[in-house]
Amino acid sequence: MDGFPPEAEATAVAVRRALELLQLNDPVLRVQAARDIRRLTKTSQRCRRQLRQAVAPLVSMLRVDSSEFHEPALLALLNLAVQDEKYVPLLLLNNLY
Known about the structure:
mainly alpha, about 0% strand
């Protein structure tokens, strides 16, 4: 990613990594991905846009019968919803049914 500041490059790598981890069947890695998404989306609208595709996998984590999955997934979803209130609830509804 020549020409980009090191922070932007590191963020782009972290976004890709979080999306990849979220797709794995390893519960520990999926929880870590949710925590990373929460951190990345806390203050960055750009990361929120880049991580929109994480909504469905995060919602699926809410269906798992373990509270260990619920909190990280829910907190990541809440951060994704900031400044995008119209978009995320629709995705959540579509993915719940």
